[in-house]
Amino acid sequence: MVSSFFLVCIFETLLLSSISSENVSTGDEKYEKIFKELNDLRHTTTFLVQQNKLLQLKLAKVEENDSARCEKSRKRFASVNFLSVFFTVENNNDMSLGDNQVIAFDHVVSNEGSGYDTSNGIFTAPTNGVYVFHVQIRGNEHHSCLVDIVKKGNRLISIWVTSNTSDSSMAVVRLNDGDKIWIRNSHYNGGGCVLDDLSSFSGFLLYQ
Question: Could you tell me which of 109, 94, 87, 119 has the C-alpha nearest to residue 198?
Answer without folding.
Answer: 94
